[in-house]
Amino acid sequence: MLTNLKTIIDEAYEKKFAVGSFNGYNSETFRGILKAGVETGTPIILAFGAKYLDNLSLETAAAMTRAMAGGLSIPVCLHLDHCKDIDIIYRALKAGFGSVMYDGSMLPYEENLANTAKVCEVAHACGASVEAELGSIAAGEKSHEGSASDIEAYTDPELAGKFVKETGVDALAVSVGTVHGLYKGKPNIRTDILEKIDQNTQIPLVLHGGSGVPEQDILNCIERGIAKINVNTEISAYTVESTAEYLKKEQPHFSVLSLKQEEYVKEIVKKYIAFFGR
Predict the structure, then answer these.
(1) Which superfamily does 5-276 belong to?
(2) Which of 61, 123, 184, 234 has the least C-beta neighbours within 10 A?
(3) Could you tell me the residue ranges of all domains in the chain?
(4) What is the pTM of this model?
(5) DSSP code at position 215
(6) Which pLDDT belongs to residue 150?
(7) What CA–CA distance (Å, rounded) separates 14 from 7?
(8) Residue whose C-alpha is closest to residue 137's, from 93, 96, 97, 190
(9) What is the distance between the alpha carbons of residues 77 and 21, in angstroms, rounded to a whole number?
């Protein structure tokens, strides 16, 4: 069944577990992610990044999700990920997305706050949820989000509390030491900052850059308010590497390869579902 983000992550926040937000870009990734949810009986946040509009239109992504997930017994939220363009956000809401992320993290604080509040007003009127971002997350290896010029800036706990109160946002993505993509060294997750953000906001927090974060760091973050964890790079990397290995041995019809890629996506997503839900 289709739902919004708030319905899924409010429960996770209250019960101290996290729900994965898995990026899809085409039919194979959408099907693999949804199958992982069905086989584990887990709610699914199916993320479609604004960066992938060359792969699918908003309307096609929404129609595919309705067709694939409308009759499922698990809750499914189609979420627009990392969008800086408010007009695209409004198009996504019109198309039927259950959640949108307005990314104004690179703007001056007051402009980010004003734009996020505007998005919240429209999205909530549509029955959809809103995620925003405060602070800046750097780009790691194989990242398809952000750029090498992005500079990490930790989220200010005091500003976070003010931001949540004045915007009415449903979830807040924070910068506490993760990166978009894979890590070049050992991550340094600032759980001290995260704990203060949680105390000041009291809403579900979002960890971007979940690919490759050590298990204990993830568990520590969940204890301090993280209820949604984004995974993108590792889905892509695992599926591409598995496909390359398969093609060394076989030269299948493309229809067969498509089904194999769906299975690869399902495998890696199930790994993260088991991880986050402990």
Answers:
(1) Aldolase class I (3.20.20.70)
(2) 184
(3) 5-276
(4) 0.90
(5) H
(6) 43
(7) 12
(8) 190
(9) 9
